[in-house]
Amino acid sequence: MSAVLTAGGGLTAGDRSIITAINTGASSLSFVGSTFIVLCYCLFKELRKFSFKLVFYLALSDMLCSFFLIVGDPSKGFICYAQGYTTHFFCVASFLWTTTIAFTLHRTVVKHKTDVEDLEAMFHLYVWGTSLVVTVIRSFGNNHSHLGPWCWTQTGLKGKAVHFLTFYAPLWGAILYNGFTYFQVIRMLRNARRMAVGMSDRVDQFDNRAELKVLNRWGYYPLILIGSWAFGTINRIHDFIEPGHKIFWLSVLDVGTAALMGLFNSIAYGLNSSVRRAIHERLELFLPERLYRWLPSNFRPKSHLILHQQQQQRSEMVSLKTEDQQ
Asked: What transmembrane ranges does the database entry give (predicted)?
């Protein structure tokens, strides 16, 4: 998002057109992924639990951030201001919601507290309030001029410093907090499992597989923000060192990875077992039986997999009986 709002100095018109196309395509993918999670929360009642409610707010922030990144030319009047401020607001809210998810998991697993649902109002105050404050502060030092499809440009060192302090400082604070929190959660689960399992080799192998599954599920959450904003941070630092001399490939990576954050979040946080189960149950109700034969086993509901296995076993038993009779 930051490069989308600031990239331009030292780039030709053709370069800016390419960056615009990349931003629109990546933001569209993020918008589709985030909208899918929002619709799942609204349509499936079994998903309206507190744990998934935080994921819903995360997806909603990503959806609105992506929407304002792909709107048309905002170079006239109020739309220009609205696009710049709302994009910054919802993008900050997005990575702040990831910290609430990490806090909830840490408080439940490590602290063994059950009062996380009572903190929902505090979460809203923290996320929306912080996003509003940094967005208002961000307006200081900005020159609202038209640059392609973007409004905000920082012409001086003051504007660039304010941008860095109001976006990248809280961003990397959130990354460090998420990484430290998930490290504690994974270590806690690992110690608890080692205390609970037996001493046999088979149990140890199961324990290792379970630990690997936990690492794959939670360990890469902080990596999403790092992958989305590492190039943006490098681009901002380079802009401090050599102002007005943009590197094209760095700007492309900056815009592309930042605009894909919503898609990454929707896949990592949203497509969990509860969502897949809810989708499978609806497919099982509305899709005819013959269509499941053409689907891969990973996309079939468990009931159809069990039925298919039973049919295979029956056919094998029939073949054995015919061979015995012969």
From this structure: 18-42, 54-72, 84-105, 125-141, 161-185, 218-235, 247-271
pLDDT tops 60 at residue 290: no
What structural domains and CATH numbers belong to the chain? 13-271 (1.20.1070.10), 274-307 (no CATH)
Cβ pair 260, 30 in contact under 8 A:
yes
Residue 88 has pLDDT above 50, yes or no: yes
Residue 194 pLDDT > 90 = no
The three state secondary structure string of 245-292 is CCCHHHHHHHHHHHHCHHHHHHHHHHCCHHHHHHHHHHHHHHCCHHHH
> Cα 260 to chain center, whole Å?
9
> pTM above 0.85?
no
Under 8 Å between Cβ of 106 and 185: yes
Tell me how far CA of residue 157 lies from CA of 108, 160, 241, 249, 258, in angstroms.
44, 5, 11, 23, 23
